[in-house]
Design brief:
By secondary structure, the chain is mainly α. It has a domain of 98 residues. Helices cover 60% and strands 3% of the residues. It contains 7 helices and 2 strands. The protein is flat.
Length: 189
C-alpha cells in the first residue's frame, strides 16, 4: 500500500479530539494537496534530493496535526533516508531521527487505529478485530542499531515492539530478532 493510500478508502471529514490537543483529519482540499505533494515526491525521489526533501517538509506541514497520517509519512521518509545512506552522510542520522519520532507516537497511533474501522480485519470466526499494522520504524532502527553494534539498544527496541503487539514481517518476528541480537551481544563481550 502506497503512502496515504489508506485514506483514499475513507470518507474523511474534519474531527476534533476531546483531549486538550487537537488531532484533525484532512479535509478533501488538504487531502488533495497532500496527494499532489506525494506524487511530486515520487517523481523526484533519488533523482533530485533537494526537491524531494523540500516536498517532504511541505507534506509534513499538511499532516502534522493527524497522528495516523504522520505515521504513514514517517514510513515513507524513513524508507527514503535509509535509501540515501550510502549517498548522503547525514541520511542515516535523519533516518534514526524519524524512526524515533514514529516509535514515540506508536502507542497513541495504535490506540487511534484500534478505534477506526479502516484498520479492522475479520478473524477466522468472522468477527472484526484490530490487528496492528507493521511499524517499519521498529525493524529499521533495530537493523541500524545492529549494524552499529548497539545490540542492547536493538534488543530493548524489539521488546518494546513485542509489548505493543507489533510484527516485523519476518518468519521469526521480533522474538527471533532478539535471540539473534543476544547471540551477537554475547559474542562481542
Amino acid at each position: 500500500m502506497g503512502f496515504f493510500d489508506i485514506f483514499r478508502k475513507k470518507g474523511i471529514k474534519q474531527r476534533k479530539n476531546t483531549s486538550k490537543r487537537k488531532h484533525t483529519v484532512r479535509t478533501s482540499t488538504s487531502k488533495t494537496n497532500v496527494f499532489s505533494i506525494l506524487n511530486e515526491i515520487e517523481k523526484h525521489k533519488y533523482i533530485n534530493d533537494v526537491k524531494t526533501k523540500e516536498l517532504y517538509d511541505k507534506a509534513y506541514k499538511q499532516i502534522s496535526g493527524n497522528l495516523i497520517d504522520r505515521h504513514f509519512y514517517y514510513n515513507s521518509v524513513i524508507d527514503y533516508y535509509y535509501g540515501l545512506r550510502h549517498k548522503d552522510k547525514y541520511a542515516i542520522e535523519k533516518c534514526i531521527q524519524y524512526c524515533k519520532e514514529d516509535i514515540e507516537i506508536a502507542p497513541k497511533v495504535l490506540e487511534l487505529m484500534s478505534k477506526d474501522q479502516t484498520f479492522m480485519h475479520y478473524d477466522e470466526e468472522g468477527n472484526l478485530e484490530f490487528i496492528p499494522p507493521r511499524f517499519p520504524s521498529f525493524q529499521r532502527l533495530a537493523i541500524i542499531y545492529e549494524n552499529q553494534e548497539k545490540y542492547e539498544e536493538a534488543i530493548e527496541l524489539c521488546k518494546l515492539a513485542i509489548k505493543l503487539n507489533l510484527r516485523d514481517g519476518t518468519k521469526t518476528g521480533f522474538e527471533g530478532r532478539i535471540k539473534r541480537l543476544e547471540r551477537k551481544l554475547n559474542t562481542s563481550k
